[in-house]
Amino acid sequence: MKRCILFFAFIFSINSYSQDIQLRWNKDLGTAKELSKAGNKIILAYFTKDDCKLCQQFYADVFKSERFKTISDNFIFLMIDGSNQDIKSTDMNVIKQRRLIIHYNKTASFPALVALDKDGEVIGELITSANKEDIDSYIDFLNSLIQ
């Protein structure tokens, strides 16, 4: 009986792992560029805010989609958090995040996603739309970059 329980627990754990990949998010562009150069991978910069419901839905629609899971190993992930935009903040992490938003997301739209090359140059366009057709089209675009 114990073997049977262990067997099903093992199968369940494998199934759970395969359904939800864990992405390794960086918060520093310099680190993301180093990893991109070392692994010859494209950087995906994701702009989000903690209290943004649309950001949470966008995250699920893009990063948890089966289509994205099949290509996720080809990217370095950079999360740019726009939650704290206090212009008077002296926290270096907040300042760095704000600078990335100003440079790569000029409209300060959340959620947003943009591909960057190993030098931090934009590839394609920033996607700010959370509708299914635009997300599918962007995943097609990402797929074209890795072929």
UniProtKB/TrEMBL annotation:
Q: Which InterPro entries match?
A: Thioredoxin-like_sf
Q: Name one Pfam family in it.
A: Thioredoxin_7
* Entry protein name: Thioredoxin family protein
